[in-house]
Design a protein that fits this description.
- About 0% of the residues have low confidence.
- The chain folds into 2 domains: about 220 residues, NADH:ubiquinone oxidoreductase-like, 20kDa subunit (Rossmann fold); about 100 residues, Cytochrome-c3 Hydrogenase, Chain A, domain 2 (Irregular), CATH 4.10.480.10.
- α3 runs parallel beside α9 and α4 packs across α9.
- The strands form 3 sheets. A 5-stranded parallel β-sheet has the order 2-1-3-7-9, with helices on both faces. A two-stranded antiparallel ribbon has the order 4-8. A two-stranded antiparallel sheet has the order 5-6.
- The chain is of the alpha/beta class.
- It is globular.
């Protein structure tokens, strides 16, 4: 498949494609891997300071399931969450994998990185020589990685782990490593965003990124653009309380400020998303989430912001 076709596959509004994007992607990956000298994408995954929601979201990949992603697309070399090996055996695997696949593996970082007190607040391993912090681990792996992907908003921008008062000095990977980071933000990430990004890296290299380092494939337009309640917004017809069918901008919906394709990508086996479930978007893919969205369910301060967002959305649609 040509790159342009792959992009159209990821961005298509067809329910058959987007409700089962991973199912559509894996046959394409299979054709690619059948070519001479092609192999699965090597991945080293480090989980740092977060709630573990992103690997749980990834495990919820459906139709096909997670095991098929592992078997048919990525070669997960190390993961302090998924792997069975522990202790020195796990660290030996990590060291060997980073050397064997130098400049080829994708370093996936999940969670923000505590930097206060030299990263003391997140230790991923204890050795005879002392503790290995997440900060130390990702800095050591940075030079050997072909690409670095931050999965989730904590890894991308700091997210809830770096929210006020941020006692651990947690920061997004982009603020810790001195290289380009591919940010697949979300709290948690939609598994299709992650699988689609990895597939692009495998077959075509780095995807086009927006100003925040996120793949335009999935973050190129606001939630507001394709929201099913958009027509209410355009008529200034706003909900007065949760449960009303009108636009929830009046209830603090962050859709006009939030880049993501949630309205048609959907969640929970691709059947629902917040606005469809009668709750406002809280902007979980944004770089200022959650501090920039709180207090939740509170009307945005000025109507002029609404008008500004309407202009911004109109520009993107032209």
């Amino acid at each position: 498949m040509e790159k342009e076709e792959f992009v159209r596959l990821c961005q298509s509004l067809s329910c058959n494609n987007n409700h089962e994007l991973t199912r559509a992607i894996l046959p394409v990956v299979g054709e690619y891997l059948a070519l001479p000298n092609k192999s699965k994408l090597p991945v080293i995954w480090i989980e740092t300071n977060d709630s573990g929601d992103n690997n749980i979201a990834f495990m919820n990949t459906t139709y096909p399931y997670l095991d098929q992603v592992f078997a048919e697309m990525i070669d997960l070399l190390y993961s302090n969450t998924f792997m069975a090996a522990q202790g020195s055996d796990a660290l030996s695997i990590l060291e060997q994998a980073s050397l064997m696949y130098k400049s080829k593996f994708v370093l996936v970082v999940e969670g923000a990185v505590p930097v206060k007190d030299n990263g003391l607040y997140n230790i991923i391993a204890i050795t005879e020589k002392g503790a290995i912090t997440a900060l130390e681990a990702i800095r050591q792996l940075e030079a050997a990685a072909g690409h670095v992907v931050a999965i989730g908003t904590c890894a991308s921008f700091g997210g809830p782990s770096a929210a006020r008062p941020n006692l651990t000095g947690s920061a997004g990977v982009r603020d810790v490593l001195k290289r380009e980071i591919i940010n697949v933000s979300g709290c948690p990430v939609n598994p299709d965003w992650f699988v689609g990004t990895l597939a692009h890296l495998l077959m075509y290299g780095r995807p086009e990124l927006d100003s925040l380092g996120r793949p335009v494939l999935f973050y190129g337009f606001t939630v507001h653009r394709h929201c099913q309640r958009r027509s209410y917004f355009d008529r200034d017809d706003f909900a007065s309380k949760p449960g009303d069918i009108e636009c929830m901008f009046s209830l603090g919906c962050m859709g006009p400020r939030t880049g993501a394709d949630c309205p048609y990508r959907q969640w929970i086996n691709h059947v629902n998303w917040p606005v469809k479930a009668n709750t406002p978007c809280i902007g979980c893919t944004n770089e200022d989430f959650p501090d920039g969205s709180t207090p939740f369910f509170t009307t945005l301060p000025e109507k002029s912001e609404k008008d500004e967002e309407k202009k911004s959305t109109s520009l993107k649609e032209t």
